[in-house]
Amino acid sequence: PVDTARLADLAEMPLDQYRLIVVDGLCALSESKFAAIRARTRPDAQWIVHYAFGALDESGQFDIDRVRRMTGIAIRENPAAYPVESFGYRMTDFPYNGYTLLHDFPLIEIVPDPALRVLARYPDGRVMTAQCGAITLCVFPSLTAAQLRERARDAGCTMIAPPGFTVYADNRILGIFPPD
To answer: Are 48 and 148 within 8 A, CB to CB?
Structure first.
């Protein structure tokens, strides 16, 4: 199944049916709430989380090391300044509640660690997407369609459409569109 849910819904949803869980832009999450959610998922579930996942708890307390404790991946602020063209798309294409990443949020990077599987790097080689066990952390929108397919395949998801096709899906409908 493919479903979209709010954080508040996860306490009630039957999460053990999902093989791949994608969490986008959730910075406010306590370690205890994440542990409770994770305990209700399949033991082999794969996770893709974004930006500073869990850096804030519900009270607004900021702790950058909480990201490492929850994901196994340490992050830090990235002091570099990259030309927008470096990424192959304009950051204005990725607004988040009226904000944009390069203007309104600090740029962050993943701290290098030999235990991580690096999936993407910034133009200067700093790590922006990495995998640690069942969790993939994207601190910048960089996960490619091919990498997402690989993570879904690793999770045991059935890939109905071949690479290059556009797929729109939710829990009621599935649309598969060829590239031409």
So the answer is: yes
Q: Are 48 and 21 in contact (CB under 8 A)?
A: yes
Contact indicator for 72, 53 with CB cutoff of 8 Å = no
CA–CA separation, 162 and 135 (whole Å): 25
Q: What is the pLDDT of residues 118-176, one digit of tens each?
A: 999 988 899 999 999 999 999 887 888 888 888 888 888 887 888 888 888 777 888 88
Tell me the CA end-to-end span of the chain in Å, nearest whole number: 27
Predicted TM-score (pTM) of the model is 0.80
Alpha-helix runs per DSSP H in 62-169: 65-71, 101-104, 145-154
Q: Tell me the pairing of strands 75-77 and 108-110.
A: antiparallel
Q: 59-92: buried (b, 16+ CB within 10 Å) or exposed (e) per residue?
A: eeeeeeebbbebbbbbbeebeeebeeeebeeeee
